[in-house]
Structure formats: structure tokens, C-alpha cells
Design a protein that fits this description.
Length: 149
């Protein structure tokens, strides 16, 4: 079995492994089918893959099923990345607007307030923004005991 132990070192990209097994078992179809079923069971059991694969007859079928699944993962991760980017962008914009409002209403912003703003969530920043519109002082913006208007 040339190179197959090396291919097992990382199952993050199983296609090369499947290709080597397919070539190695070219003359033994029953073994090829058994290995295809075995690989399918490994991928379905392995918690980090979190996938359902169709019943397979050949290694080519499992290779195609994995390729489809990898495409689905890529699309899912891309969508998650876009969502995270949008949330981060929302937070950055809210922070920028709050800092501008605080500067205009109360003058220079102390370093301690800047630090607090940098560690705040988007929701916290938005709540402070709402308070900053009517607050009588910079302290009142961050006083958590005051109601949010």
C-alpha cells in the first residue's frame, strides 16, 4: 500500500486518499466496495465532519459525495463569514457614531471611556447612544442604573 499511511495523517482533504485507494484496488471490486462503505462510515461517525452521506457502491461515489459536501461547507462558511462581517461592521459603525455624539455633546472623551467603548458589544454601544442623546453628562450615559430612553 504505497503512500496510504501518509494519506491517513490528515483526513482534512480525503480526495487524495480516496484516489490512492481506488488505484490500489483497481482489480479487486469487492475490496473497493468494502473500503468505500468503511470510509463512508468513518466520515459519518467523525464528529468534526458532521455529515450524512448517501449509500455508496464505489470509491468514486464517495469521492463525489465528499466533493458535494465540501462545496456545501464552503458555501455555509462563506455565509457565516458574511454574517460575522456584517455584525462587526454594524458594531464599528455604531461605535463611530457614539464617539462622534459623545465628542460633540461632552467634549474630549477620557481614555477610560475609550477603553470601555472598545470592549462593548454592538447592543451596549447602541444603548449608550440612545442615552447620550438626552444625558445631562458623560457619566449619565454610562450609569447603568438609569433607564434607557
Amino acid at each position: 500500500m504505497p503512500h496510504i499511511p501518509r494519506a491517513f495523517d490528515s483526513l482534512r482533504n480525503p480526495q487524495p486518499l480516496i484516489g490512492e485507494i481506488d488505484a490500489w484496488t483497481e482489480q479487486n471490486q469487492p475490496l473497493k466496495r468494502a473500503l468505500a462503505e468503511w470510509l463512508r462510515s468513518i466520515f459519518m461517525r467523525h464528529s468534526s465532519y458532521n455529515m450524512l452521506l448517501p449509500e455508496v457502491q464505489t470509491l468514486k461515489e464517495i469521492d463525489m459525495a465528499l466533493a458535494d459536501r465540501i462545496t456545501q461547507w464552503a458555501e455555509s462558511y462563506k455565509a457565516q463569514g458574511v454574517q460575522v462581517g456584517l455584525l462587526q461592521g454594524r458594531r464599528v459603525e455604531a461605535l463611530s457614531m457614539l464617539e462622534r455624539l459623545l465628542q460633540r455633546r461632552f467634549g474630549d472623551i477620557p481614555p477610560a471611556v475609550h477603553e470601555r467603548l472598545q470592549s462593548a458589544s454592538a447592543e451596549g454601544i447602541e444603548a449608550w447612544f440612545d442615552r447620550a442623546i438626552t444625558a445631562s453628562s458623560l457619566f449619565a450615559v454610562f450609569d447603568e442604573s438609569l433607564p434607557n430612553h
